[in-house]
Design a protein that fits this description.
The strands form two sheets. Strands 1-2-3-5-4 form a five-stranded mixed barrel. Strands 6-7-8-10-9 form a five-stranded mixed beta barrel. The protein has helices spanning about 1-35, 165-170, and strands spanning about 45-55, 55-65, 65-75, 85-95, 100-110, 180-195, 195-205, 215-220, 230-240, 245-260. It has two helices and ten strands, in the order αβββββαβββββ. A hairpin with a 4-residue loop joins β4 (about 85-95) and β5. Mean pLDDT is about 75; it is low at about 1-35 and about 115-145. It has about 260 residues and is an alpha+beta fold. The longest helix is centred in the first third of the chain and has 36 residues, at about 1-35. Helices cover about 15% and strands about 40% of the residues.
């Protein structure tokens, strides 16, 4: 009789233990669902629970409605307990910080400021991305996004011996690695404050859309707006792997941006 009572009791305790284990894992699953719902170029709002400053940005652990997550934003005097909104987010998975010697399974890079293009208000899908309709966001898929032909009329090249059309730069990129070159083009997409840089996409009416040579990705500390005609001068980089599958066959890095009309 005693044995009959003990066995059901053990079964009840086993069920309770399993239920407790599942309950403790619920926040993680909830956080995962919330993270998946954050669209590229969207926003994250939360409270700072931990901050790790690593210039030129600061890593923050945020408490959000969907659970805790990590974000990296432009350097700012944030303190634990501050409510913040991170704009124009870009998800990086298995991101390795060489400075911290730490790998973040999931981290969102973004900006503390929302920037919109002239005459183009931000919307719910991409509150801080100034770009023409139909242009894919930088983080919409792994790797450099396929460029969309913005139908830019052909432009004259910038002046100077190191000035090239975008198609020419693509054709000679291996020969020009490490060199400073100048490009005149129209800004067709602008992503500010991502990984401590502003990301500018230029087109000048040259190149082949089917081969992806109509578009040039530029990184800069200067700002720009979609529709601007600018002259950028920066260093040619090729085969740039930024981690988490983000790769660029051609990149103009650390560029200065000036009005190009």
């Amino acid at each position: 009789m005693l044995l009959r009572l003990v066995v059901p009791a053990m079964l009840v305790l086993s069920v309770i233990a399993c239920t407790d284990g599942a309950s403790s894992d619920t926040p993680k699953r909830s956080s995962g669902r919330a993270a998946a719902a954050i669209v590229p170029g969207g926003t994250i709002t939360g409270t700072v629970r931990e901050r790790i400053p690593v210039g030129p940005y600061v890593y923050v652990r945020l408490d959000t409605d969907g659970g805790e997550l990590w974000a990296a934003v432009n350097e700012a005097p944030l303190t634990v307990g501050d409510p913040i909104t991170v704009h124009n987010v870009m998800l990086m998975e298995q991101f390795q910080s060489q400075t911290l010697k730490r790998t973040f399974a999931r981290i969102y890079f973004g900006s503390l400021q929302s920037v919109t293009g002239a005459g183009q208000p931000a919307d719910g899908a991409a509150p801080s991305v100034s770009q023409p309709s139909g242009t894919p966001d930088m983080a919409a898929s792994p790797g450099a996004p396929a460029p969309i032909d913005a139908m830019v009329s052909p432009l004259a090249k910038a002046s100077g011996p190191n000035a090239f059309a975008i198609a020419e730069l693509w054709a000679r990129k291996e020969q020009l690695v490490g060199q400073a070159v100048s490009i005149r083009g129209v800004v067709v997409k602008y992503n500010p404050g991502v990984m401590g840089k502003n990301w500018i996409h230029l087109q000048d009416g040259s190149g082949d859309a089917t081969r992806g040579t109509i578009d040039l990705t530029v990184t800069s500390q200067n700002t720009a707006a979609v529709g601007d005609t600018v002259v950028v001068t920066g260093t040619v980089r090729i085969n740039q792997d930024l981690g988490a599958g983000y790769r660029y066959a051609l990149l103009l890095d650390g560029a200065t941006v000036k009005a190009g009309r």
